Every structure is written in structure tokens, then in C-alpha cells.
Amino acid sequence: MNKTPAGPRFTKLTKSLAASVPFVGPETQERLRGRAFDARLGANESVFGPSAKVLGAIADASQHMWKYSDPESADLRDALGVHHGVAPENIVIGEGIDGLLGYLVRLLVEAGDTVVTSLGAYPTFNYHVTGYGGELITVPYRGDFEDPDALIAMANKAQPKLIYFANPDNPMGTVHSLNAVQKMIDEVPDGSLLILDEAYIECAPDGSSPAFDTDNPNVIRMRTFSKAYGMAGARVGYAIGHVDLIRAFDKVRNHFGIPKISQMAALAALNDQQYLSQVIAQINDAKRKITEIGAANGLTALTSATNFVTLDCGADGDYARRVVGALGELGVFVRMPFVPPHDRCIRVSAGTADDLALFAKVLPQALEMARV
Amino acid sequence: MNKTPAGPRFTKLTKSLAASVPFVGPETQERLRGRAFDARLGANESVFGPSAKVLGAIADASQHMWKYSDPESADLRDALGVHHGVAPENIVIGEGIDGLLGYLVRLLVEAGDTVVTSLGAYPTFNYHVTGYGGELITVPYRGDFEDPDALIAMANKAQPKLIYFANPDNPMGTVHSLNAVQKMIDEVPDGSLLILDEAYIECAPDGSSPAFDTDNPNVIRMRTFSKAYGMAGARVGYAIGHVDLIRAFDKVRNHFGIPKISQMAALAALNDQQYLSQVIAQINDAKRKITEIGAANGLTALTSATNFVTLDCGADGDYARRVVGALGELGVFVRMPFVPPHDRCIRVSAGTADDLALFAKVLPQALEMARV
Description:
Chain A is α/β, with parallel strands linked by helices. The first copy, chain A, is built from 13 helices and 12 strands. A 7-stranded mixed beta sheet of chain A has the order 2-8-7-6-5-3-4, sandwiched between helices.
């Protein structure tokens, strides 16, 4: 009788985890449907792409790709430090904000620890918390806004290791004022760390983001080149915080993990702020257009401080899910919030004129199909 | 009196870790010395670079970098499956072998678990094991070779979660025969997982690598585009194993972590096997030249199955460290093994004709300086 090998012994924790991906990629959907989407408006990427200077930097960097990248990302951190008025020692570069969230959770969270976030906020953060055995405590949004007061109140009660707060918010696109955010920062209970996820901050109205205070050990800020900078595929995010916290990432990160091309592309993107302003204008135009298209079809747009518009479909989650499905069948990739009552909405990224012409054309048909 | 905030609460484990990097990058050394190295022969990169087709693929991919990359890396996994004669479900792509080792250790190792490796083997693996609270048990090399029999004997004794074995080996560059490796695979105690790190396998003599057997849950193979394929800066590694083990990576990995450009570059590299053969020939020429340069200076070269040559400096670790330092001062970046008795050696990557001309020129001077 042959012995069947039992295979590797997973930890109790990882044995309990689902082999799940927080987001199904559009490529996966395209493989399932057998053809590509005609408009890619579901992942809040920037269809306007990166600066031409970024493409030039990539061509230069490709000549050096045989080399391991600088594990300190020194050039990029120096430039970000100048840009934000903080020291390079207060900045860590990661494989997107996703990568940084993973490292941060690993540093702080173990089995039994609690973490506070909003019900319906960024699922990849939840993926990391669960992945390290943490317990998620959620507070509801207040209408279509994350609720800083409720998050702080819950933090005072639960004494969590981490509090997650995105400003502007995804998936609703709403933003809080600088004063509201500063008040939240000031009220973080000692022993908790506030993650202020500012992935979309470049798209927000001026004055939505408090000044950096790297003396404060109770907050870490996260930014990315994936959104307004148009470089989602490069995977470059960064965190700004107290030097002791930033240095701790060196205990756990994949030191050589940021590709050389990505580092040099991000540096070029940062150095072309004129292009960024131009893109923000294009994003704002596109958001106006999406709002109009929605209105023409009886859908109300939420005011957006991001590079997408959340459209209220005016019914329940099942209806909105059918709208998303129908749009997909008609060649337009969009996504939607995960939980009620936000799942009455669909989420449409700022697109090119062609993208939005197609969206305008097929939306009436999609709504018709969804009505069943 | 102001309250000084205590800051975030790290886990007991991460509090105990050092904020260390397994390897100091040459860029860090260059910043310290105030000028660039003239020859970069210390990180076993491929100075010959990637195929011209890779550069073309990067230019194409850069047009799409505004998109998140395919989290399944489906095109690359399909192509690798065909190349190696395994199913895509048996392959996971990671941020270099470093990234995959981190995920694998996380899946299996928690506080108190043991892991077996060789004393002086890959330090980044050790970094991950320590980082997840595992306990490293080391066995000595047998001469300049890792010792499969000793590794298996220790595994039978310690019943570790993981056994690490590199073939060919780094830092010594030696290789075991297919038969020796197959015997080791067959003898892995049930409940232990053998990591067969084949980062340098493309440089090894034909027949150094056993056939893939994805029915075997007790072994996982790791490969990379960082060495012979000349793409260290792209950070693409892959692992091949049993479908249950490969699927488990989906529980913990950074799903969107492999940049679009890196995926497409790796695909182009894989599809240009003719270029790979050409590079292997160049590597072999360079290794011959390094051997000759060593011999002309009284240093004995170990037979190498990798893209570097380990040169025995004939004295102790302090002497070899002085040689490495002197070469650095003279503009040549090399590294050396970490532990005795291997630290009698220095490790020189296959270089261009210019690199090796400089190495030949400055080596006598460096040896002179090291003699003190």
C-alpha cells in the first residue's frame, strides 16, 4: 500500500484563510467572456496615462534592468522628501499602497488584535488584517461619507492597533475637510495608529490634506503613483510617518522589491507636476461628463473628490449588480460598492472621450436590461 | 506636562527583529564612497542584459502602465507552463524568488517552528524565517558543496516545516547531479517541504535539474528572471509545485504586485531562448576569463555552475574582506561568502570584456593592499 504524503504543514492561521483575491481583475473577466472590454472604467486607473517624461524614463531605465534596483529607493525618497517637505527617513516606498498595508499590518497585528475600519471601506486592507489574524471592527458610514467621529469613538472603546480611514474615500468618492481630518488625527487614542489613505488626494480640492507632522507617532499617511499619476501597473506607493515607524518597515519588507523601472518612472512622474495638473483638469472634465450622462439617464452622481464618479442607480444592490453586469456585456468594465446601502451605486472611473461616448451610448440599454 | 505618545504597538515578534537588509545594495556603497563603481560584479546580475525583444516588450508595455497588472499573470504562467511542461495551476509568479520565499515562509512557519538550511546559504531566506519567528537549524557544507545527505538527516531528526537547498549553490557556485537532487527529493520526510532554489539553473550543465513532478506535495521549485535572463531589476520569480500549495499563495500574496511591464518583459525573455543560449555562452567565456585572471594572481577558481566564479584567496576571512574592500576602492564591486571556511573566497560575477579588463588590472593591486 502506497503512503500518500500529507504535504506541507501550514500554520493554523493560514490554513483558516480563503485563497481569495480582494478584486477580480478585468483580465480575468475578459478571459471568461472571451473578448476584451471596449472601455476600462472599473479600477479607477488613469486612462490618461503617465507623463511623456515617464515613458522616456522607462526607456532609459530599461537599459539598466539587468541590475537589481536600489533597495533604499534613495533617489525617489529624496525627491518625495523635497516635494512634501519631509525627510527621506520619514518615507518608505512599497509595492503599491497594497504592499505597504500588508507590511504595516504584519508589523502591528497578530491573532486577537483588533482593527477599526468603516463597513464597506477598502477590502484589500481587510484582506491583510484577516491574513494576519486580526479582528475587524467596522463602523457604518454616515450617509455616503466615512465617519471620523464614529471611528474615533470606536477606537476609544476597542483600543485597536490600527484605524483605517481613506480621504478621499473609495468607493463613494467623498472627502472630508482638512479640519475634520486634523481633528481626527488629534483624537487618535494613544496606542492606536491611524492609517490615513490618501490614494486619491491629488484629485481632491485644495486643502483636503493636513500638513505632514512626522513627529506624531500615531498617524501614517499613504500615497500612490497608481491613480492621478497614471502608473497603476508600476506598483509604487509610499508611506510618510514617524522615523521609528518608517524604519520598522525594514524589518519585514522585500528590500529589493521595487523594480528599477518603477522607481525611475515614479521619479519622472513626480518631476512633471505640470502634466499632473493637466491630467487633473482632464479628470474633472470627465467627471462632469459622467455626471451629465448619469443625469440624462435618471442616475444621481455623488460629488466626487477622486478620479471616479459614484452614480446612485436609485434602487437596491441587486439592481446595481445587474447594471454592472449589463454594462460588462456591452463592453464597459465598471465596479460598484460592496455593501448596502452603498451598493445601490455603480462606480465609473474618469474615461477618455471615446470611453465616455460608449458609456453614454450603452448605459440606457444596460439600465433597460437590468430592469428585467 | 505634555503626554508623550507611546506610538504604535508592534507585535512581540516584530519588536524583536532588527531593521536590517540582508544585502547592502551597491548604490548604498556608491553613495557612501561618493562615486559609482566602474565594474558591477558583486550581485550576480547579468551584465549582458536582457534580449532586445525584452526591450521592445517594455516599450509596448509602457503604453499600458496606467492599467493595474493582471493579478493572475495568466499570459506568463501559460507560457511558463508550456516551457516546463506543467499546468499553469502549478505555477505562481512572485516579486522575485525573495518575494516567493517570504510568502512561503508565512504560509508555513510560526513561532517555534524549525527550518533546516545550510550554514552560509542564502541569507534572504534566513531573513524571512526569522521574520516569522521560525528557528533556523543549519548543517555545514561538505567542502564547497551543500550537503543533501546532511540536510535530509537533520530533517529526519528535527522534522522541520521547510528545508532549503539551492542547486546550483550560491555563494560557492557548485552544483549537484540530477541523481543526487532526485535522491534528496525522494527522501524528504513527510511533513517537511523541500525548497529547491534553482535561481542559477540556466547556467548549470545540462541534466542538473530533475523532471518536474507536480504530484509531489513535498517539494517546491523556484526559478527567476533575475539571473541568466538579465532582468534582476524587473523582479519576476516563479515557483512550481503541487496545485494545493501553489493555490495557497493566493491566501497571502500581494495579488496586484507584479508590474505589467515586468510580466510582459518576462514573457518576451522566455520566448527568446536563442538569446538565452547566446548569453550562457558569454557567461561561460567570462567565467573562463575570471578563472584565468585568478590563476595569474595565485587565486584558485572553484568550478562554477552559475553566472559567477568563486575565487579562493588562500587565506582567512579577514584577508578576503580586505580584498573585497580594496577592489571596491579601486572601482570594482564584488561580494564574498559570509561564513568560514567559505569566507576565504571572493565571488565575481561574469562581466563584460571591459569589466574583466578592469578586474585583471586592479586585482594585483587589491591583493597587495589586502596583504597589509
